[in-house]
Design goal:
rod-shaped, 2% strand, 10 helices, mainly alpha, two-stranded antiparallel ribbon, disordered C terminus, 2 strands, 259 residues, Arc Repressor Mutant, subunit A, DNA-binding
Length: 259
DNA sequence: TGGTCGGCGATTTTTACTTCA
DNA sequence: GGTGAAGTAAAAATCGCCGAC
């Protein structure tokens, strides 16, 4: 992992806020590059006259990835140079460096072939060990770090998609339950209406057919109102427990062992 | 117990594409 | 119809934190 530049947000921003809530300030322009590096960079990648877009289109396998971000460049500098040296710069150098900076900031866009292979590997394993990473990087002519980043982002996308799917599923569940609740409330009202009008018919006739079921193991009639009806002579009529399920309420998911 | 490494969430940056005047 | 600016979604990359070792 690269942990450099951890303080580049400045002191005034860092105080009093969790680090991950701090808004980052735009970075200052990247430090000047070593001439040898930058020259080879821009020319190697894009050629001296073509735009990045042209380069990308004309050469799908061009390894723009090599120096795709400022961060990589900084690291590259450490790897290659070891220590920073002051580079004398004149006006002629500046415009060239600005071009190079712009080129260096260019971000890699993976080719279809690269993406396809990465997808294949991801299907096999959503994470890679360092050796697999190196191998894949070599195979695709990318940096191991880029492979790592791609897998990280891919995992994040997968997770996001799964979250969306889960969310949709829960939404549908909620709709179904709301509808079911509405239906049961209506049924309850009807039952109450029946209860308080006319002398009560035999118990099982009070219940809508849908609520009456025969328990498959004991073959007794079960229904949403049976439990309450059993104590219909008590004081619980019309109370909150009227619909309280009993052990003989047939639940296909949790049929009681008491039958 | 401190250091390293890898994964993750949040965020930024860049690209490619679309829309609109 | 061609063109450039503005808007936007997607993807690559960065940053900081955390847990495992």
């Amino acid at each position: 992992m690269e942990k450099e530049d951890s303080c580049d947000t400045g002191l005034s921003l860092g105080l009093g806020l969790p680090a991950n809530l701090r808004r980052r300030q735009p970075k200052p322009p990247p430090p000047p590059l070593e001439p040898s590096l930058t020259l080879s960079l821009s020319e190697e990648i894009y050629g001296s006259t073509t735009t990045p877009k042209e380069a990308r289109l004309s050469s799908p396998h061009s390894t723009i990835s090599s120096f795709s971000t400022t961060n990589y460049i900084k690291k590259e500098k450490l790897d290659v140079g070891g220590e920073e040296t002051e580079v004398e710069r004149g006006s002629s150098l500046r415009s060239r460096e600005e071009d190079d900076e712009a080129a260096a900031r260019k971000k890699l866009r993976l080719t279809k072939e690269q993406s396809a292979l990465l997808e294949d590997r991801f299907k096999e394993h959503s994470t890679l060990n360092p050796k697999q990473k190196q191998t894949l990087a070599k195979q695709l002519n990318l940096r191991a770090r880029q492979i790592e980043v791609w897998f990280q982002n891919r995992r994040a996308r997968t997770k996001l998609k799964q979250t969306e799917v889960d969310c949709e599923f829960l939404r549908r569940c909620c709709e179904t339950l709301t509808e079911e609740n509405r239906r049961l409330q209506k049924e309850l009202q009807e039952l109450r209406a029946i209860k308080f009008s006319a002398p009560p018919p035999p118990l099982f006739m009070q219940l809508p057919a849908a609520t009456l079921m025969v328990c498959p193991s004991c073959e007794r009639i079960a229904g949403a109102g049976v439990g309450a009806a059993n104590k219909a002579d008590g004081k619980d009529i019309g109370g909150g427990s009227f619909m309280k399920p009993t052990q003989h309420l047939f639940n296909p998911f949790a049929h009681s062992a008491t039958c």
